């Protein structure tokens, strides 16, 4: 995307990034901080979140917060606790980038195991439903006071067009798209904007596990995608609601 974000685009904002310890989420967290946001780094592996924290601190950006959380295990009560902590510590929440995701096992439909289905659905869909529900009051309050708040979900090419053997992952991304559209319609007059991004094939661990024979050097890097991630989190995308944005159009 041909977009140059203002250096202060996200100054003063508080933004949650899930899966902030690796891949696209790590890059987005660092970029949001570079544009002035206090970023809440949420993810499974504390050491990876600490590495993202260190990169932000070393660059002199606003100090982030770390929330180690396994989305496979977290409950509605955990998300309500998070919302209370954010309200107490920051008094606002300007945006959430739902980025954490699980690929699961790629296999023929009739070989999908129930346990693997449940895990992928838990991480990719249910955790996002529960976290969104818990954070909505604070997002609504922020939108009222600051003019807007942003929910950004992460989709996939297989979240709009199913593909053989992509089983639960593809179905989970269709559900993410559905959640985005329902919320965008429902929140239309609240100042909370809701969109999704389909990153396209990107040089990360998840992509490498889905396409082990591919040369990663032929892929875009997470850094290449950041103009779109910044655009959708900031005021320049005001008016955009209920859409899927494709980071790498053909
Ligand atoms: P990575 O595998 O590199 O990163 C995924 C992130 O999600 C990691 O930080 C991981 O944490 C976190 N995560 C996974 N499971 C859990 C869990 N149970 N609890 C908390 N955090 C968890 O993936 P990408 O950066 O490639 O993917 C980011 C998003 O983009 C995903 O939603 C993916 O589906 C989507 N996407 C990616 C594409 C690509 O080509 N890369 C293409 C289309 C969509 P940890 O490292 O600690 O395990």
TrEMBL record:
Record-given protein name: Short chain dehydrogenase/reductase family oxidoreductase
Oxidoreductase listed as a keyword: yes
Similarity comment: Belongs to the short-chain dehydrogenases/reductases (SDR) family.
Molecular function per GO: oxidoreductase activity
Upper lineage: Bacteria, Pseudomonadati, Pseudomonadota, Gammaproteobacteria, Aeromonadales
KW Membrane (keyword) present: no
Origin superkingdom: Bacteria
Taxonomic source organism: Aeromonas diversa CDC 2478-85
One Pfam family from the record: adh_short
Keyword field: Oxidoreductase
Gene3D superfamilies on file: NAD(P)-binding Rossmann-like Domain
């Amino acid at each position: 995307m041909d977009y140059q974000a203002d250096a202060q685009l996200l100054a003063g904002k508080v933004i949650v990034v899930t899966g902030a310890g690796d891949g696209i989420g790590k890059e987005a967290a660092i970029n949001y901080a570079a544009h002035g946001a206090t970023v809440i780094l949420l993810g499974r592996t504390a050491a990876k979140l600490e590495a993202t924290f260190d990169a932000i601190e070393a660059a002199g950006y606003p100090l982030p917060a770390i929330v180690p959380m396994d989305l496979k295990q977290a409950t509605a009560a955990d998300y309500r606790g998070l919302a209370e902590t954010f309200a107490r510590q920051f008094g606002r929440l300007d945006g959430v980038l739902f980025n954490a995701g699980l690929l699961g096992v790629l296999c023929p439909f009739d070989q999908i195991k129930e346990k693997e289905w449940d895990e992928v659905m838990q991480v990719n869909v249910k955790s996002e439903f529960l976290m969104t529900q818990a954070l909505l009051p604070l997002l609504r309050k922020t939108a009222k006071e600051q003019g807007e708040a942003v929910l950004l979900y992460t989709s996939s090419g297989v979240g709009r067009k199913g593909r053989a053997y992509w089983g639960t992952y593809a179905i989970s991304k269709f559900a993410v798209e559905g959640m985005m559209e329902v919320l965008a319609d429902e929140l239309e007059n609240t100042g909370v904007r809701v969109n999704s991004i389909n990153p396209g094939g990107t040089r990360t661990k998840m992509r490498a596990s889905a396409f082990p024979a591919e040369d990663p050097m032929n892929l875009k890097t997470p850094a290449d995608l950041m103009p779109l991630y910044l655009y959708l989190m900031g005021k320049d995308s005001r008016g955009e609601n209920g859409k899927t944005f494709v980071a790498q159009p053909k």
